Amino acid sequence: MQSRFTMTWDEQELARAFKVTVADVREYLTDGRRVSFIIERRLKWENPGWSLAPSEGAGYDLMDPDGGLWEVRSITRGGVYFNPSNQVGSGRRFGEEGFLAKLQAVKGFILADIVDFPNVKLFMVPTECVEKWYRDGMLGVGAKVSRQVFHSRLEPSLPR
Length: 160
What we know:
By secondary structure, this protein is α+β, with helices and mostly antiparallel strands. It has one domain. Helix content is 36%, strand content 21%. The chain has helices at residues 11-18, 22-29, 32-46, 96-105, 127-135, 147-154; strands spanning 4-8, 51-52, 62-63, 69-75, 80-81, 108-113, 119-126, 144-145. The strands form two sheets. It has a six-stranded mixed sheet. The protein has a two-stranded antiparallel ribbon with strand order 5-8. Helix 1 crosses helix 2 (22-29).
């Protein structure tokens, strides 16, 4: 899999298939909780040897052909987070121990910038990059960064 690439969809075709409006398709597929399911599967089908996690609670989303575990995350208007999913949401808190354990458990993150759907830019982010960003204080509270910070400060440091 390339380290940076773009997935595109035909939103008119999706709207016809789902029998909804293009606006409905855009609303649904720019929600990170919803679109991640589709992105994970498309990545699996377009990259021979990749496989899906056995369940939603597996702690990773995809396995590469060498057995490396990858977490798929959406970059939304609100940004992107790198901590475990169980630390995100109302009443949940960031815990450094859980965050560092997450980094030890996965090879990296596949970030999908869904804001410009139907054109979704994807970035392969090795855990070494996330660890460095964290050590250097480049990740915000709760290991989350805004979309703007990701593209302006973090993306340029990713391997090509």
